[in-house]
Specification:
two-stranded antiparallel sheet, mainly alpha, single chain, 254 residues
Length: 254
């Protein structure tokens, strides 16, 4: 390929659109969107992978006027956002479940800044979120995302992404599924906490000197931690399966 062809108008526009696609992906998808990764590093990774995959970009089939380029850039940003929303909904099943578990354990007020999202979250949420993140790294989610980005270059032409009704239907289904699966993950601790409340209520009726705050609350927390450790492996497997299902949907959609 001659230098004049490399720096032609069409190739330059293709480079900009591909850089926008990788940038939006790295800002939206799990692992790469981690708040502890500086913006400069994300931009450098987007530029590196743009250069790496630029040779496989097919010729553009869009006009190069200002309006068409603006629409194409917005489409590439929507592409990364759509992929990120689909994967984040599957990943945040564990965050929703952690919120329910923290509430039942009485840890709702024990919160700190979550390194993944940058917002204040209960410590149980953070523990489960970081554990799920490590498991997804072990299962090579970051490699899945890069492979998907590579395959999308030919499956979704640059500047040709359009939001489909099936994407909206899946997002609505994923939001409902996040609530259902989150409650399912938190159910063992929720059920045992409610059972402990019933038992403690009966004890307070029979023994009025029983101090629920001094004795009952530590017992509930200890039981919840035991159940959490016993179900942690199954919980992480559920999150991995949810993320894999979301990834499989992306392959079928685009």
């Amino acid at each position: 390929m001659e230098w004049a062809e490399i720096f032609s108008e069409g190739r330059t526009v293709a480079f900009i659109l591909l850089f926008t696609r990788f940038s939006s992906l790295f800002m939206a998808v799990p692992i790469f969107s981690h708040m502890n990764i500086p913006i400069s590093i994300k931009a450098a990774m987007a530029f590196f992978f743009t250069v790496f995959f630029f040779g496989s970009v097919p010729p553009l089939n869009i006009p190069t006027d200002a309006l068409s380029l603006t629409v194409a850039i917005l489409g590439e940003m929507l592409f990364g956002l759509a992929v990120g929303v689909v994967l984040q909904l599957a990943y945040h099943v564990i965050t929703f479940a952690g919120g329910q578990i923290s509430f039942m354990m009485g840890f709702s007020l024990a919160s700190a800044i979550d390194p993944q999202s940058g917002v204040s979250m209960p410590i149980i949420n953070q523990f489960l979120s970081l554990m799920a993140l490590m498991v997804l790294l072990v299962f090579d989610l970051h490699h899945w995302i890069l492979l998907y980005a590579s395959a999308s270059i030919s499956a979704v032409p640059l500047g040709g992404f359009m939001i489909t009704p099936s994407l909206f239907r899946y997002i609505i289904h994923a939001m409902a599924n996040m609530i259902v699966v989150g409650f399912m993950i938190a159910f063992p601790i929720t059920a045992l906490s409610m059972l402990a409340d019933v038992i403690f209520g009966m004890l307070m009726k029979t023994m009025p000197q029983f101090n629920l705050l001094v004795i009952g609350t530590p017992i509930k927390i200890a039981i919840s931690f035991l159940v959490l450790m016993a179900t942690l492996g199954a919980t992480l497997m559920i999150v991995t399966a949810q993320t894999q299902d979301a990834y499989n949907f992306l392959e079928k959609l685009f």
